[in-house]
Amino acid sequence: MSFDILQEKIIALKNPTVAGLDPLPDYVPKHIMDRHLALKGETLEAAADAYFEFNRGLIDALCDIVPAVKPQSAYYELLGPAGVAALAKTAAYAKAKGLYVIADVKRNDIGSTAEAYSAAYLGTVKIGGSELAPFDFDAATINGYLGTDGIAPFLETCRRRNKAVFVLVKTSNPSSAELQDLQVGERKLYEAAGDLIEALARDTAGKYGYTCAGAVVGATYPEELKSLRRRLKNTFFLVPGYGAQGGGAGDVAGAFDENGRGAVINSSRAIICAWKKTGRDGLDFAEAARAEAIKMRGALRECVDFR
Amino acid sequence: MSFDILQEKIIALKNPTVAGLDPLPDYVPKHIMDRHLALKGETLEAAADAYFEFNRGLIDALCDIVPAVKPQSAYYELLGPAGVAALAKTAAYAKAKGLYVIADVKRNDIGSTAEAYSAAYLGTVKIGGSELAPFDFDAATINGYLGTDGIAPFLETCRRRNKAVFVLVKTSNPSSAELQDLQVGERKLYEAAGDLIEALARDTAGKYGYTCAGAVVGATYPEELKSLRRRLKNTFFLVPGYGAQGGGAGDVAGAFDENGRGAVINSSRAIICAWKKTGRDGLDFAEAARAEAIKMRGALRECVDFR
């Protein structure tokens, strides 16, 4: 089971951090961006090359500290097809370095369209007589608003190819309450969404008890996080909102089960933009990211025992 | 206002059809796919070239019949970065032919990530001193599960660049009821979602009364469609589910206002795979698509008066 692989990496490194590789043109140190713009002009292709060089440096600096990385697709799509090519290269490089790679794509659709998304990010497509894997991520985030029809095709791919998804349940943003906290009978909507995904994937629990259908639950709602941990005993959590969005190590402690398992905590800007605070114009971006990831690991270890 | 442009195209052609450009490798006539595989081998790049040739033929055959096309991004992402490049080329070609082009991407996220998505599909990004438009679609579909934080950044881009979005409200699939029909106080969840987007975009109504925030409402729920039309007087509808998914012209009539305005009806497979029924191995794929689009236009004109 895919989350077994992730859990074992977490135990080996005693660190449940996933580093968000979420570049914006401004986040790439100027010396890297300028070199690529000089080579290819002020083009999306040049910026995409700069993204990849930045990511490669980050991955090299982080791969023995964090078990996983999570590129946010939006920032790559922002550079058009060249950006998506940089995303694919980043994923392949991170996998080669032993990292568990999560595509933060929040895809959602139904029927053959959902099948196409799941084949794109987690599966394969048949071209002529060849079976090709377009991106081959380990896991992807999805949005479950469309119900079972929008989730089941992804779970099908997960079962077949030993992959996993994280379904949005309770997101970290201030207005997540507008729809997600609406009361539906005895439950809130986000609880209903959580119950649905736990039920859909019940048959896939791995050796640590977690199914292939995880949940996204924000660090910025620690009470909800704790109560969802109790409610969804077989659901692995991806927890955004740590660091830049305001969640601290104490806030995310409730995401873990009694053995310190069952969750990964994402941090993006705090790690990849750590160089902005060192006053060295990003010449030390990799070391700065590494130092920040070590600091976060220390803070998490103080709150949770990762056996 | 972006929906004014679409509405005027609909009035000019007396046709509210949007043709879904949703290719799968199997949907491309064999003579096209085989030629590209012979050129570039059994690769994602070859399949992407075949997609584009197929789309170009469809667009040429449809551009004086339908006002709009809607490529579903999943099928392009299925071919990795090369597929996304074919999507960008398809969008540019369709725009050059005078079509209104909707990106069916169902993107969703918050804060700077939502800004990146909206800049990618509807806006621009600054690279060095240049302002570049990565895809430059006229409109995009989005998923509103994250609330205002996930919708507002898109509306910001729409206001600035005269673009539009369609937010998922009531989707066409059988299990859409699981979450969307849950009762929240006096309303169903999908009604709450509809009310939210109508309120968020109120200040953007154009000359036909419609704001830049449209809604996706499935043809397979004609009663809900009719009651949402009454409820959301300023919200333009994108209606999937016609044809292959079972909705007929009578089912979608309720999507239009008393002047026959305010909605586009999507058909994908029935149009782009029409060649599969003519027994000519797809040599006539463009004519077959055109004939099917003319038939659909006729059926819609019988039910609604498009002034």
UniProtKB/TrEMBL annotation, chains A, B:
It holds the Pfam family OMPdecase. Keywords: Decarboxylase, Lyase, Pyrimidine biosynthesis. GO terms for molecular function: orotidine-5'-phosphate decarboxylase activity. Pathway: Pyrimidine metabolism; UMP biosynthesis via de novo pathway; UMP from orotate: step 2/2. It is an enzyme of class 4 (lyase). The keyword Membrane does not apply. Its EC number is 4.1.1.23. Residues 16-289 form the Orotidine 5'-phosphate decarboxylase domain. It comes from the Bacteria. It catalyses: orotidine 5'-phosphate + H(+) = UMP + CO2. Gene3D superfamilies: Aldolase class I (3.20.20.70). The active site is at K106. InterPro entries: Aldolase_TIM (IPR013785), OMPdecase_AS (IPR018089), OMPdecase_type-2 (IPR011995), OMPdeCOase_dom (IPR001754), RibuloseP-bd_barrel (IPR011060). The keyword Hydrolase does not apply. One of its GO terms (biological process) is 'de novo' UMP biosynthetic process. Belongs to the OMP decarboxylase family. Type 2 subfamily. This is Orotidine 5'-phosphate decarboxylase. The lineage of its organism: Bacteria, Bacillati, Bacillota, Clostridia, Eubacteriales.
